[in-house]
Write a structure and sequence with these properties.
Blueprint lengths: L2 H8 L1 H17 L24 H12 L22 H13 L11 H15 L7 E5 L2 H20 L3 H4 L9 E3 L4 H9 L7 E3 L12 H10 L5 E6 L11 H7 L5 E6 L24 E5 H4 L7 E5 L2 H8 L28 H36 L3 E3 L7 E6 L5 H13 L6 E5 L2 E7 L7 H15 L1
Parallel strand pairs: 2-3, 2-4, 4-5, 5-6
Antiparallel strand pairs: 1-7, 6-7, 8-9, 9-11, 10-11
Length: 462
Amino acid sequence: MHRTLAGDLSRLPELLQAARDLAVREVAGLAERPVAAAGPPPGRVPLPDAGAGGDGALARFAERWAPGFSGSAGPRYLGFVTGGATPAAVAGDWLTAAFDQNLSGAGGSWAQELERETVAWLRELFGLGEAHSGAFVTGATMSNTVGLAIGREWAGERLGVDVSRAGTAGLGPLEVLSGSPHSSITKAMAVLGLGRDRLRRVPLLPGGREAVDVAALEAALAERAGRPVIVVANAGTVNTVDFDDLRAIAALKERYGFWLHVDAAFGAFAALSPEHATLVDGLDAADSVCVDLHKWLNVPYDAAVQFTRRRDLQVAVFHNASPYLGEPEGEPDFLHLTPENSRRLRALPAWFSLVAYGRAGHREIVERCAAQARRLGAGVDTLPGLRLLAPVRLNVVCFTLAADPTPQRVAALARAVADSGEAFVTPTVYGGVPGLRAAFSNWRTTGADTDRVLAALAAASG
């Protein structure tokens, strides 16, 4: 064994303690560190020939790179839809690396059963029935890709084509209908060979809504009678967290045979709050569902789940035919359910957080984030330099400059907020108007944080 490796192994407790001390300092100071990194990154250095050992690597990281990492795990990072990592989830993530389980197969480990237990808890949390099976994936993009891949196989079943064997050529054009699809949907369509141009956008409800007009959707389905179609319903749009009427869309399935995929990347968490749970009524009728966990479940990157009612078709798409991996019989190993063979135990941080805080703890996070979004929205409404672009429906505030909101001026506002070190928000375009989004999904965010974000916006827009 290399002497540096041997030395690190003999001093592993001390090395882990040093890493723990650095992590504790970072987490303890997270609320006050600049939310976005300032200044250029350090220049690159050559790959070392002689290793510096674990202590040396830790010291160099702390000196050269750690200062420029963003405060994305902190309470005022409101860009994209970014959760933090609960204390229990961090502990689970550390143990994921320490146990380093090979999840290609059962392999004499109980790890897959822990994942199945966690998936079952999540299914219950989001109001899905036992007809839905699930698996962990990297994020919403992969979850949407898996759901559409199963839908593609379903379309082949309707046409008498085994797509997983014969390919998409025998399938012919397969259209995907949606009102306000996330960009990951068209990315998935490109990956799956369906083609980005096969997306058909269905008219939305009037009044600045991002929810699909169900009557227009029915008309589009009627025009395509006789051909299989995938419908992507949206449970929580990116700009305004608008929800399609899932119950009404599910009712259309009785007259028009289509595959219903619901992108509920963060909207599914509305199910935890009695005030908002009706937004996801009908989710259980979906054929496939996407939920992203490193958003509102507040587990470390990367983690998401996908659910489906047609595990048989999922296995047809993703099974790995190799003698040493075993056949996908009975309860198939997860390698037969997603694009990955090699995968880390993403379920463990989620399992830790669910056990540590339960349904009630995660409900409190959802409800507090929604309350803070309303608080910021009300504050923006009072600032003379800003205006809301849409009502605050759940956990995202969509706003812009009150006067002359050009892309350049809005981008300058976002930079000024980031340069203040107080907050980070991301750009969008809503109703043709450039704007900004502030998304609340971090377990740490309090009213005091929201007030600081509002003060930064006031200073940058004044």
